[in-house]
Predict the 3D structure of the following.
Amino acid sequence: MIVVNLDVIMAKRKISSNELAEMIDITPANLSVLKREKAKAIRFSTLDKLCRALDCQPGDLLEFVDEESED
Amino acid sequence: MEHKDKSIILSQIIIKICYAGLLACCILAPRLVLGYSREIDDETVVLPLLITLYACVPPAVCALVCLDILLNNIRKNNPFIMQNVIMLRVISYCCFAVAAIFIYFSILRPFAFAIVFAAGFFGVILRVVKNCFRQAVEIREENDFTV
């Protein structure tokens, strides 16, 4: 599964959800969906804005965790 | 938009008429069945036909209630939700139930096989519509959760 490490990066950058939502021009509700890992997909444009705002790489935000091998 | 609302209201009125028709059939069924048996000059059909008709009432009521809920959801601009998929599934089961109930009577009177076929056919159509709705719900959910 894909794990979203957005909250970790946000904590490192000391940025709040509302600030980030305003910076990348998405609603706080949508940002919350992404943070709570309820999102089913992420647009490249959103990923681009996130990476720009948080000064990171897509790989810092998204991580692949092999659930099968963990079992 | 106004045309859409009128169409939904018309559908809801038709459903209310169906409720009334069903109630009338329940009350008048014995008289109608007796009349029919006299016409074909065979009194042995009275009991099986009455049992068949009254056995069809619960699925018919269930289907009408589901249609009502479905139309209410559509009126609230909520067509692609899981509840509507469930309603369509229940209506298709109701159609299959009516088809199954009429199988016995169609053995006695082969013309009733037309009802079995029609109800079964409606059931299949509704299942296909239900499958389409289910996919639409999944697409909508995916769209809603795309950030």
